[in-house]
Amino acid sequence: MPFIDVGRESSGPIQLHYEDHGDGPAVVLVHGYPLDGASWEKQEAALLAAGHRVITYDRRGFGQSSQPAGGYDYDTFAADLNQLLTALDLTDVTLGGFSMGTGEVVRYLATYGSDRIARAALLGPLPPFLLATDEDPPGAPQALFDGFASAAAGDRPAFLTGFLNDFYNYDVYGGTRVSADRLRASWNTALLASPIAVVACIQAWLTDFRDDLPRIDVPVLVMQGDQDRILPPPATGERLRTLLPDARHLSVEGGPHAIIWTHADQVNQALLEFVVVK
């Protein structure tokens, strides 16, 4: 079970757990909140079958990675990703993020550049900026996110139940595109995450990525469900059509936030086409 050290807290190291499978061109996948690297299982299977090397990892605070008391911000998340790419000496990488993981992709490229990265995929994107302000009204008010954080801190299991129902649009796709077993497995994974991380990452969602986006100089795929309840397209993906005009933009009809599971065939086809683009 491989780990890399990305820092220290008190008497012990902060470690990221990662999985590294297959041979061929490397694809590094960054998971969404509140799951872990294993949530990419359908994409990993498709990419491995197509002859790619696939690396997934658990963000600090989630999965089998360390659960420190701090570092739940995008500068730190991007630094963790940089340490992983450096430790594995990866180049010509397709860097893919889902949901919260799209923030790592954007902040990494803006901070560390594209020397190691050939292209980037943003699935269910978080950028550019979720918080509504006077000068940038799209988005949601601070009170909404304060409410999320309060709910997560007050009764984390109940918060996760509601969040995951909207994550999958379970009222629409329960029993068809997502089973009760999958919903329960996601809840079990989420419940094992650091209680501190589950709350602190809600504040990280409010990171302003608008200055990061112009620094991206690799081909980009943006893909999102048009029924995304977690990161609604008018505040996220639709704004990226203007801010990343050269990207390939795909909308999944009827897709919820969790398109990597509910609409995996469409996502996988788009990814496989994208990773061979030169």
From TrEMBL:
Q: Name one Pfam family in it.
A: Abhydrolase_1
Q: Which UniProt keywords apply?
A: Oxidoreductase, Peroxidase
What protein name is recorded for this chain?
Arylesterase
> Carries keyword Cytoplasm?
no
Domain AB hydrolase-1 stretches: 25-264
Signal peptide region: none
InterPro entries tied to this protein: AB_hydrolase (IPR050471), AB_hydrolase_1 (IPR000073), AB_hydrolase_fold (IPR029058), Epox_hydrolase-like (IPR000639)
Its source organism is: Actinoplanes palleronii
Key word Nucleotide-binding present in the record?
A: no
